[in-house]
Amino acid sequence: MEDRPLAGKVALVAGGTRGGGRGIAVQLGAAGATVYVSGRSSASGGSGLGRRETIEETAALVTEAGGTGVPVRTDHSDPEQVRALVERIAAERDGRLDVLVDSVWGGDPLTDWERPLWEQDLGTGLRLLRQAVETHVITARFALPLMVARGRGLVVQVTDGNTARYRGSFFYDLAKSAVIRLAFAQAEELRPHGVAAVAITPGFLRSEAVLDHFGVTEENWRDATARDPHFTYSESPAYLGRAVAALAADPDVMDKSGRALATWGLYEEYGFTDADGTRPDWAAHWAEALVDEHGPLGDPL
Known InterPro entries for this protein (predicted)? Predict the structure, then answer.
């Protein structure tokens, strides 16, 4: 059981199609969990993002890693679809849900990195907030009762950054900061029921989209470090996944409830490594190489 500490546990990874969500789903599976993988990108239809990854692929990777992957196509902006997803989990798993991970995002094509708020398209910005924040609220609204009924569980809100530092674009910053606040507010309401809620961020994440941007794969990603030396300190989605799996297996995780966490603050405590055996520390690299240009990351929230 030591190498499968989540055997018998049930997890839902919303937005588990790719990137950090996929990394988390696979690592929860490697720890023995049954993982429901939800999102819009499916073999039966895309999400509009034009990406090739699907929830079925992620679910297969979960099973290959040693867990049980269950793909369920769900648009998390639609309350009725989310309600149906949670009702299915409750029916198939005797009302059990131990881990809820919300990694729903899809905001990359909606983010304007060039212009200030007053020059941006308002409709696009509000759409980003609906996609990146409202979806998290909707998902929690329907999933949390399963945890409250059992008096235990862990909610993980995936974000970007664990400080109040501005993230470079108004709507992007608002969305990512709001997700941290969601975790804090949920922690306050869930604490009397024995359920923990945290936010977590990776460092420089080698998502599928980032790898495509650099024209490399996970196998040869170091070829891109000549183009961007900071990429040397990047991390794979497995690193984030192992951080979440460690939290889910921690019997004292309530001690962290309400906090904004990061892979670089957890690897030493839990002893996990990235897929290649390294232990990237994005905060340490930032302090050494980026602070003069971009300022400090700030204190953890």
Answer: NAD(P)-bd_dom_sf (IPR036291), SDR_fam (IPR002347)
Q: Give 283-301 pLDDT, tens digit per residue.
A: 999 999 999 888 899 888 8
- State both tokens at 285: 């690299």
List, for residues 266-276, the tens digit of each pLDDT value: 999 999 999 99
Q: Which two tokens stand for residue 232?
A: 């040397």
Domain count, the chain: 1
Phi and psi torsions of 171, nearest 5°: -70, -35
Q: Judge whether 78 and 39 are in contact, CB under 8 Å.
A: no
Query: Pick from 260, 259, 266: which is nearest to 235 by CA?
Result: 266
Residue 104 lies in a domain: yes
Q: Which two tokens stand for residue 271?
A: 């002893």
Annotated active-site residue in 172, 233, 239, 267: 172
> Token match 């490697």: residue?
30
Task: Please report whether residue 275 resides in a domain.
Answer: yes
- Geometric angle at alpha carbon 135, from 129 and 138, rounded to 5°: 130
Give per-residue pLDDT as tens, 207-261: 999 999 999 999 999 999 999 999 999 999 999 999 999 999 999 999 999 999 9
Closest CA to 139 of 151, 131, 128: 131
At 118 the pLDDT is 98
Whether residue 4 is contained in a domain is answered as no
Pairing of strands 153-158, 10-14: unpaired
Active site residue 166: no
Distance between CA atoms of residues 68 and 30, nearest Å: 9
- Angle of the 170-190 helix axis to the 135-150 helix axis, nearest 10: 20
Q: pLDDT tens, 1-54?
A: 468 999 999 999 999 999 999 999 999 999 999 999 999 988 887 767 778 889
